[in-house]
Request: fold
Amino acid sequence: MSNMVRASFLPLAICLLTPAIVTFPAAAQSNQGDQFKFEVLSIKPVKRGSGMQVGIPNPTPNGFTATAYMNQLVAFAYGPPAPPFGPDRTEISNLPNWSADDVYAVDARVSQADLKAWQSQGKNRDLLRSALRAALKERFKLVLHEEPAQRTLFELVVAKRGPRVKPAAPGASLPVGVNLASGGVATGIGPRGENGMNFHGATMADLADFLTPGRDGPVRDRTGLTGRYDFQVPRVETPGEGRGYDASISQLGLELKRGTENRPILVIDHVERPTSN
Reply:
């Protein structure tokens, strides 16, 4: 078994850019009150080829189809929901060495009785997460537990001179783009958002989610700003800074402060390679 891995994957449904760990969810419940399960489930090892997309996509209308590593499945099933700007950063300890090599094709279907609930599940995809937990226990013989740990975080705070963000106009129509957790929208600057993002009707929590990838800990909103705002975060490359956004948030009257917080990690007690079916 390896020591510690931070599961990091880009959801296939979101391809603009490369979110934070708080607490892990209890098992999601189906509409019958029991743990949700797939009616039909196939898991087969596959050879990763050039151009193959590996990650966790959105569920299909009647089930779930994906090509993913085992650690990606575990992180999605047991970690907190990832914000729109994934990847997920769930920390998993004691993963087997093969978890970084073996790729699995997952093809699953839900029962006709569960179809309505499946198609109306929320944006956190709780029924999919619950069904994957059941699949991991059954097919991978997965046993795990949570352990508390002290980890790095970054606090997004207002700088001394005060914020310089423009309040969004109430009722303003939003452009087509990446739907944010708050209900706001982000649109890319340059191809695929390579030069930064424009935020429309967004919250400071949305900005914190956006700033998290590329750092050694999640960004938490500590600004105290509770409204919705329109602002731009262009990429400005700065030596040693990573993704190039710290100079931009400084122009917004904001800054990041490093700190620590207690949050759980997932610890694998037992897991096996699944038999093909």
